[in-house]
Amino acid sequence: MSTQSNPDRLKRLAYIEDQRNQKPGHCNRFLHVVIDPAFLREPHGAQVLPKLTELGCKYELHQQSSPSTVTFYRTVPTKVTVTGTVSDTRVDEPYAVLLLDGANFVTYVQNHQLLAIIRSVKQGLLEAGPFGDKLDRRLSLLVFGLVSYCREHRGCVGRRQTEQALTELQLYEDISHQLLETDEQVGTFVAQLARSIAERPYKQQQEERYGGADQGQYFGNEKKGCVRVEGLAGLQQLFQAQLIKIPSVTLEIAEAILSVYPTLNALMEAFRVAGEQHAPNLLASIAIRRAGGPIATTARKIGPELSRKIYLLYTSTNPKQEL
């Protein structure tokens, strides 16, 4: 039977391929970074293209509506539909980067023009992207060489004036900023942002899967060794894994506690019944089996100190409590 005659199998294969392409390490090759040529000028642009190449992202050089800007879009992988047609989708990302050198930045701050300039750039990106797209992008501002410029031109602009101008950008236009001094820092910033954008669909999917309304009944992810809980199944394993994370609590100690209190709820109820006076020593007399062997008369016990620490860990409401 051919693939074309089996729509369900075709959909399943397409789903598996989509999931694989969204994962970190695979998603980078579908992200396109569109760079204005002015962004690559020396000295700040020398490391941008090598960093993107190392990351595995594609890049394109196009003159943007505002000089020294970078925008992003992703392509959904080409796939054959049930009818035999080929689909290829472009998705524009709502992010952009603007780079200003120290001299221009100081001039805009001195003349109280920085906010107006940034608004003009955002409007230009909204009205005319490199492919005619219209998208309200969140802008990140890179200021290159400000410290070096101010050292050479002492008294050109005050620190308070600079901070006020940058604060206005954050308050009125939700603009984040970075003060960078080397081409390495510029290239690293663009590459890190590109990687975050490329992984955004995967992280959103993970958040929806594990951060939804049923998160109280389902704990898990795709990491090795994670404990999955569905309904009541897995609660004891989750409690054991939690106990082992406590310093000084070995697997043997955790198993000893679980032999008496198989769930966290059972332990908390026992603490409540024992009262504040006796609860800290509730676990002290529990004997520990050695490597699954029988409990001898000389068997080691949890002891009052570790019992007190476990009690405080689960019951203390003081955020500065020391164990």
CA-CA gap between termini:
65 Å
The number of helical segments is 12
Could you give the count of β-strands? 6
Average pLDDT rating: 83
SSE order in H/E notation? HEHEEEHHEHHEHHHHHH
Briefly note the structural class of the backbone.
alpha/beta
Strand content: 15-25%
What is the CA-atom radius of gyration, in angstroms?
Answer: 29 Å
Helix share, percent: 40-55%
The largest sheet is:
6 strands, mixed
**How are the strands ordered across the major sheet?**
2-1-3-4-5-6
**Outline:** extended
* Unreliable stretches covering 5 or more consecutive residues: none
Characterization of this structure:
By secondary structure, the protein is α/β, with parallel strands linked by helices. It is built from twelve helices and six strands. Strand 3 and strand 4 form a beta hairpin. Helix 9 (235-244) packs across helix 10. The radius of gyration is 29 Å and the shape is extended.
Topology:
Layout: H1 7-22, E1 31-35, H2 48-55, E2 58-61, E3 69-80, E4 86-101, H3 102-110, H4 114-127, E5 138-144, H5 146-152, H6 159-173, E6 176-180, H7 183-198, H8 200-210, H9 235-244, H10 251-260, H11 264-278, H12 304-315
